[in-house]
Amino acid sequence: MVALAVSGVLGAWEFGMFIKESWDVRATAANYADVGVRLYYDENNITVAKEFVEKALELSPDNAEFLYLDAYIDGMSEVRRLFNLDRPYTAEELDAAYRAVAKSILLEQQEPDKPEAYILRGQIYAALKERGRAIIALERAIALAPSNDFAVMRLGVVEYGAGQTDKALGLFDEALALNPKSKWAHLWKGIVFSDTKKLTEARGALSRALEIDPRFDLALYNLGWIDLKEKKKNYAGAEELFRKALSVNPSYKEALYGLGMVYGYQNQYEIAHGYLSKALDLDPGFLTAWKWRGIVSYEMKNFEDAISDFSEGLALDPSNADLFVRRARVSVLTENYTDALDDLLLAKKFNPKNPRTFLYLGQVYQSLEQVDPALEALRQALTLNPRYADAHALVAKIQTDQGLPEDAIKSYQEAINSTRYRQERFVVPLAGLLIAQGRSGEAYEELNRLASEGSQAPDVWFELFNVSVRTGNLTRAKDALAEFVRLAPASDKIEAMRSQL
Question: Looking at the predicted structure, is the pLDDT value of residue 310 above 90?
Answer without folding.
Answer: yes
